Please model this.
Amino acid sequence: MEKDIEKILVSESEIKEICQRLGRQISKDYEGKKLLLVSVLKGAVVFMGDLMREITIPCTIDFMAVSSYKNSTQSSGAVSFKKDLDINPEGYDILIVEDILDSGLSLKSITEVLKCRGAKSLKICAFLDKPENRQTEITADYVGTQVPNEFVVGYGLDYAEKYRNLPYVGVLKPQVYQK
Ligand code: IMP
Ligand code: MG
Model:
């Protein structure tokens, strides 16, 4: 796996610091609220696991699955829903936990669906933000760090379902996906 990585963008120690900072802030902001963390499968599971352990207030977790990338490095624009929430989010303060905010098309669809569910509030926490590639007006309320407009893998993010288990975020060598 390592040989396919051109450079490391977010190291393991930086990831740890980011999760601690976001966890501290979220714990403060959601004190006394009914926090529901909604993670978007599969990319955000690794971040969800780290972030939830840095949150010191009670919270509930749930998962949704959508797909917008079809084994390529470009968003297709179309989003299909594969799995809905198990929990009825009515009355909860939802915080969507995402791996990356790229074109923004998937998060746009997810927030539109969740907005009609009677939640008290709805915010977004994205581990990575790639603002240069945005195709719709959407911003995250909490951002781990910004990345340039390059295809990244690791820490949950995949290319053709591989590299999710890399413990850091790296840029894939272009020859890997130009094959
Ligand atoms: P969107 O383009 O903001 O809709 O991003 C949708 C999804 O595409 C993200 O949740 C990721 O799973 C995936 N994605 C976007 N950019 C990258 C990337 O650079 N590497 C790997 N996956 C990505
Ligand atoms: Mg994702």
Notes: The chain has a mean pLDDT of 93. Residues 40, 43-44, 99 surround magnesium ion (ligand 2) (CB under 6 Å). Strands lie at 5-10, 35-41, 60-67, 80-83, 93-101, 121-129, 142-146, 152-153, 169-172.
